[in-house]
């Protein structure tokens, strides 16, 4: 009778081993599903990147190869539904054209939400990929903007959150350096620059000299068209930052591609 506990212990050990094996099997299967999910997401990202590249080219723009990240987990359920929660697109070294001059946008970040794309579209890379909302944020370099103003020696930058200008001028035979800031607004796809407060150290204290300086300010106070942005993005706001003129844009119910 004293050996009975040892006899009862064997089934318990076997049960624990079976349960442990079952848990391990579940973990392995879960890991395989995660790997398969990520592999499928990577394939979709490459397919969408190819179509984004075509869309950028149709805007007569250039960029480095797009980087696409499909958000949301699990991915496979999104594939079956044909709707994706969030797709992030990063375009770098973007170059557009305005008035024959290249405008540099070092980086354009695009966030597309509620994107519709059928499984067949991703498989064949033909068809429409549309987003309910698209938000974009990019930076136009000051050098590119200065070229559009077409004033020799003019330099733009940021000063206390405002667009600042420095430029050499010749007023009544005196070679001076102009300093000042501008008000920056955006409307109808153009950036309006209004230089209202220019100064020049050593400016002759003459009405004509002041008039010439005011005329220079008017000459660089223009509406600068922006290059066409991909995905039908409309610029809503511009902000002078140390790295350049930051533009914020958005669009609704737009194609991420235009093929098929």
Explain briefly what this protein structure is.
It is built from five helices and eleven strands.
* Run of helices and strands: HEHEEHEHEEEEHEEE
- Count of helix runs: 5
Question: In what order do the strands lie side by side in the largest sheet?
Answer: 1-2-3-4-11-10
- The number of E-state strands comes to 11
Structural overview:
The model is unreliable at 29-34 (pLDDT under 50). The protein has helices spanning 4-58, 75-81, 119-124, 142-149, 207-220; strands at 67-70, 83-98, 101-116, 130-140, 155-159, 162-171, 174-187, 190-200, 223-225, 234-241, 244-255. Strands 1-2-3-4-11-10 form a six-stranded antiparallel β-sheet. It contains five helices and eleven strands. By secondary structure, it is α+β, with helices and mostly antiparallel strands. It is elongated.
Entry keywords:
five-stranded antiparallel β-sheet; 5 helices; about 260 residues
Provide the fold topology:
Elements: H1 4-58, E1 67-70, H2 75-81, E2 83-98, E3 101-116, H3 119-124, E4 130-140, H4 142-149, E5 155-159, E6 162-171, E7 174-187, E8 190-200, H5 207-220, E9 223-225, E10 234-241, E11 244-255
Antiparallel strand pairs: 1-2, 2-3, 3-4, 4-11, 5-6, 6-7, 7-8, 8-9, 10-11
């Amino acid at each position: 009778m004293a050996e009975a506990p040892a006899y009862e212990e064997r089934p318990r050990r076997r049960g624990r081993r079976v349960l442990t094996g079952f848990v391990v099997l579940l973990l392995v299967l879960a890991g395989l599903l995660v790997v398969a999910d990520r592999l499928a997401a990577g394939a979709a990202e490459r397919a969408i990147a190819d179509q984004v590249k075509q869309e950028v080219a149709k805007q007569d723009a250039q960029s480095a190869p797009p980087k696409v990240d499909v958000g949301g987990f699990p991915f496979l359920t999104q594939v079956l539904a044909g709707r994706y929660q969030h797709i992030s697109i990063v375009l770098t070294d973007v170059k557009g054209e305005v008035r024959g001059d290249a405008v540099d946008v070092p980086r354009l970040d695009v966030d597309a939400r509620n994107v519709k794309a059928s499984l067949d579209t991703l498989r064949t890379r033909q068809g429409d990929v549309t987003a309910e909302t698209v938000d974009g944020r990019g930076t136009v370099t000051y050098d590119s903007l200065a070229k559009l103003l077409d004033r020799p020696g003019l330099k733009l930058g940021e000063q206390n959150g405002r667009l600042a200008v420095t430029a050499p001028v010749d007023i009544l035979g005196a070679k001076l350096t102009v300093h000042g800031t501008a008000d920056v607004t955006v409307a109808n796809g153009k950036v309006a620059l209004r230089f209202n407060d220019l100064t020049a150290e050593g400016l002759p204290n003459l009405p004509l000299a002041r008039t010439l300086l005011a005329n220079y300010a008017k000459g660089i106070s223009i509406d600068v068209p922006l290059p066409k942005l991909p995905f039908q993005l409309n610029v809503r706001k511009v902000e002078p930052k140390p790295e350049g003129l930051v533009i914020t844009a958005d669009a609704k119910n737009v194609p991420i591609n235009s093929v098929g």
